Prior knowledge:
Layout: H1 26-30, H2 37-50, H3 56-62, H4 71-86, H5 117-122, H6 126-142, E1 146-149, E2 160-168, E3 174-183, H7 194-206, E4 210-216, E5 230-232, E6 242-245, H8 255-269, E7 273-274, E8 281-286, E9 289-296, E10 299-304, H9 307-320, E11 323-328, E12 331-332, E13 335-339, E14 345-348, E15 353-355
Antiparallel strand pairs: 1-6, 2-3, 4-10, 4-11, 5-6, 7-8, 8-9, 9-10, 12-13, 13-14, 14-15
Amino acid sequence: xxxxxxxxxxxxxxxxxxxxxxxxxxxxxxxxxxxxxxxxxxxxxxxxxxxxxxxxxxxxxxxxxxxxxxxxxxxxxxxxxxxxxxxxxxxxxxxxxxxxxxxxxxxxxxxxxxxxxxxxxxxxxxxxxxxxxxxxxxxxxxxxxxxxxxxxxxxxxxxxxxxxxxxxxxxxxxxxxxxxxxxxxxxxxxxxxxxxxxxxxxxxxxxxxxxxxxxxxxxxxxxxxxxxxxxxxxxxxxxxxxxxxxxxxxxxxxxxxxxxxxxxxxxxxxxxxxxxxxxxxxxxxxxxxxxxxxxxxxxxxxxxxxxxxxxxxxxxxxxxxxxxxxxxxxxxxxxxxxxxxxxxxxxxxxxxxxxxx
Length: 357
């Protein structure tokens, strides 16, 4: 590397690394000899930890393939070393003052979620996804979503499939591996409008009040069906029995509607009023106190000016539905809420940043 030409960026732009690029045969592995991948990675990690945090993104990607690196992985490793050679005068010194360091990475560099059940059981995170599927199936059993029956002669069952999603927190760290069994039907969702959520965010900042978040664990499974529906069993089970659905399941055309009707009937019976401009926004006024609630599929946002009233509303909601209290909202629908003072805060959106107030 002594005679190599320095470069301006650690990673070669436009090259996406993946496990598919790793060598599979002995011949392919023999052809990737040369630079010691693990040794180079170890040296870079040492530099990153002490004076070169600018290397962290590149090292985070390259470290995934240290067990079996391919030619393109090694090429990217060499590029990082070339970058280091051209930036030997770079270093980070701590002088005792409080510092805030914010690091960004491309979402496209993350390992993609599996698309099919077969991909799931063969990927590196298979045990984590198996646990997520087990949790989903336990929820369906607990709520008696279906029962196994023989398919009537005059009925045709619908199909089903798994959807896998890695949920991240506001810091970009993995919060949960989520697996969801869905019916192969198009779903129309009853949700709050984005403009309504932005207005709620603005009101929260303007009046200096809190915004709390609640996650409905199995929203669609709460709805009841109006007609008989039969569904094929998930992959890996016998075909002689089918699932007769007792409750709505994700993916059904009417699933979102049934959940919305159930929630609307419950929340209005508790004294909340639906707004005319957005049927997924509800308000309740008790004396001089108020509570504003928005519903977006399985996410609930609550704005309030009295904590006692909030506690009562949450207790009632938890008595009716299986929910998880997320506390003060920090990451909602891909938006990151950050306080920047006593009177305002910023909302980081998925693809841009806008100041709420």
